[in-house]
Design a protein that fits this description.
about 190 residues, mainly alpha, 9 helices
């Protein structure tokens, strides 16, 4: 099974639209410079490092959960059924577009207005699946939303949270893509 180019194109269009809405809303509010301030070293390097460290912690927690909990292994199998076989190039495109668009929208636009908790709840709900077997993903997304939102509050940097989000997605997509989905799971879909 391979993730078709059409799915990736649809996702990129969606994330492009979300990013455009974010830019328009931030521009209308006069907050565009706040979302994307000019880079300053060494602050930018610190934000890149913090994003990478948060991603490493989240990925370690996910691997630990898969080893310890049956629900995490079932969730992993469900994702492999949908995303198994995704190549590195498509994984990179999906990871960058989702990390940048979602973080600009949720952390940059929504969090200053709604606060950390409500934005995290909305972030989780935005990851509500069509397949009820993926419902734990919604809860995990809300927890990750709290983590990313806390990082945003600590740094004020969309760079840090977009790097963390993008790295998490990229590593997980590549990991899922290495192993094709089991045939019985694919047939059940």
């Amino acid at each position: 099974m391979n993730v078709p180019a059409a799915i990736v194109k649809t996702a990129v269009r969606f994330y492009g639209g979300l990013f455009a809405v974010t830019l328009l809303a931030a521009g209308w509010q006069g907050r565009l410079p706040d979302l994307f301030p000019p880079p300053r070293w060494p602050e930018t390097g610190v934000h890149l490092l913090l994003g990478a460290l948060v991603a490493a912690g989240a990925l370690t927690a996910a691997a630990t959960a898969r080893g310890a909990f049956a629900w995490a292994r079932r969730l992993d199998e469900e994702f492999r059924a949908v995303l198994g076989g995704v190549g590195r190039g498509r994984a990179l495109v999906l990871a960058v577009s989702s990390g940048l668009a979602e973080e600009a929208f949720f952390r940059g636009l929504m969090q200053p207005a709604l606060g950390l908790v409500w934005t995290s709840v909305l972030f989780g709900l935005a990851h509500f699946p069509v397949n009820r077997r993926l419902v734990p993903w919604t809860l995990l997304a809300a927890v990750i939303g709290l983590l990313l939102g806390s990082l945003y509050e600590a740094t004020g940097s969309l760079l840090a949270v977009a790097v963390a989000h993008g790295l998490i997605n990229f590593v997980e997509l590549v990991r899922l893509g290495r192993r094709p989905a089991p045939e019985d799971v694919v047939k059940a879909l």
